[in-house]
Amino acid sequence: MAQQEQQIMADPYFSVDYQAQVNLVPLAEGESVPAEEALEAEIPAPFKLISEVTRIDTNNARLLRNLDEHATELVEVINQQSRKIDLVLSYVLAGQDTPEHRYQTQTLGGGGFTFVSRQPLTEGTTVRVKLFLPELSVALYGYGEVRAAPEPEHYRCDFTAIREQDRDALIRASLQLQAKQLKARAERRAQQDTPSSS
Fold it and tell me: 122-155: per-residue pLDDT in tens?
């Protein structure tokens, strides 16, 4: 219980179970985490692009909620256009993925993520992070620090430098994922509770 309480204190953001691709590249000798302005300049263009598209989509969703029921066709057209843009961005982002540095997240949230590595990783290693969630129109580039988890081959990566807008997008994505998972769980329960008709 003490370990769990320490984790909650260390990570003020909640996490959700989710598998996503992430690249972790340990910093070379002499490299360091850049300051905020330098980080902004270092972020590859596709990550900035998807961040801007996500911001626009969020604003559009707010505006669309205010339209009445007579605008359903317009809403559908806008949603279709958004999906096309998401497909193109997914393709562009695929070029940023480096297979030799690829891991799968187990959980993720605004403070970081957990993952499994068959190769032992050194506690406290600083890594460059590329996290890909194309199905949620989220991708972020930043830095993190690797921590060993209690189970063998399990690790946590805590973000040490990411843009606030990327953290906000990741938090929104985590909430969306949690809502979907809770809905699916409720539907399974409802199916199990429904007596089968003969």
Answer: 999 999 999 998 878 889 999 999 999 989 999 9
Q: Give whole-number Cα distances, 182 to 61, 72, 134, in Å.
A: 22, 27, 21
**For residue 119, what are the CA distances in angstroms to 114, 116, 148?**
15, 9, 12
Q: Where are the beta strands (DSSP E) in 34-137?
A: 102-109, 112-116, 126-133
CA–CA separation, 25 vs 32, rounded Å?
A: 13
Q: Give me the torsion for CA of 166, 169, 174, 178, rounded to 10°.
A: 180
**pTM for this entry:** 0.77
91 in Cβ contact with 12 (< 8 Å): no
Q: pLDDT tens-digit profile of 154-188?
A: 999 999 999 999 999 899 888 888 888 888 888 88
In what helix (H) or strand (E) does residue 26 lie, and over which residues does it extend?
strand 21-26
